[in-house]
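Run log, item B.
One chain of 252 residues. Sequence copied directly from the ordering sheet:
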Amino acid sequence: MTVAVPNDAAPPPALAIKGLMKAFGPMQAVGGLDLEVRAGELYALLGPNGAGKTTTLRMVTGLLRPDAGTIRIFGIDALADPLSAKRIVAWLPDEPLLYDKLTPLEYLEFVAGLWGIAPAEAGERAERLLKLLNLWEQRGDRCETFSRGMKQKAALAGALIHDPKLLILDEPLTGLDAAIARQVKDLIAKRVAAGGTVILTTHILEVAERMADRIGIIAGGRLIAEGTLSELRQQRGSAGASLEELFLDLAA
């Protein structure tokens, strides 16, 4: 008699949040949030201003300590072992943070050094990213001379220099012209196509509609709807609705 051997356990989700809570004084910013992001997907986290999106992501990245709840990143308990979790995560806030007196090449080599990447490999990674983002010709210019779009691209390169498994982008397209926004979107799409996981917040709903594998909508610090665009349409009984129409209906 042959005994069936069970398959290996399914890999853990890229992000699993349970009962996440955060208050600032009397204001409850995040109130018992449950959320799961699958490995290898682009997940768009949407919500009106003040819904708790950025607060949630800052807790995921270890910049804020939650009042309650759990955060697991690829199976790592991010609250019990924050260093291990941070090694596989990158966070790009809505305002690019650079050292203005450094060139983009110097900045990337500096960030790579913080991650313990050997200088030779750091140089190779920096060159590859700067070429990919069309910044190679400006590699010797100081970041203080850059436009907002160029700074955003340099900051994105800095977020990618250690090849994170989970990339979190908070409004990465705000204030970018069409050409630079296209470059950033192409890089995000290539990242996901290569197996990376991306969590994206954006107020440009057309971007989420076109790019996201799944969409989560939060309001009042809680997840109020989640699924693919087709699933959200089915949930609302609106077969031909745009994401903008669904969002306005749900978040009203």
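Observations after the first pass:
- The CA atoms of residues 33 and 108 lie 35 Å apart.
- The beta strands are 15-24, 27-37, 42-46, 68-73, 76-77, 89-92, 166-170, 197-201, 214-219, 222-227.
Flagged for discussion on Thursday.
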